[in-house]
Amino acid sequence: MLNITEDKELLACTPAPVNPNLFNPHCTLPYGLTLEHIRQALEEFIDFLGFINQQLHAKGIPRLESFFRTFSGFSVTSRRTITASVNRSGTEKMRANWVYEDSGE
Question: Is the Cβ–Cβ distance between 77 and 21 less than 8 Å?
Answer without folding.
Answer: no
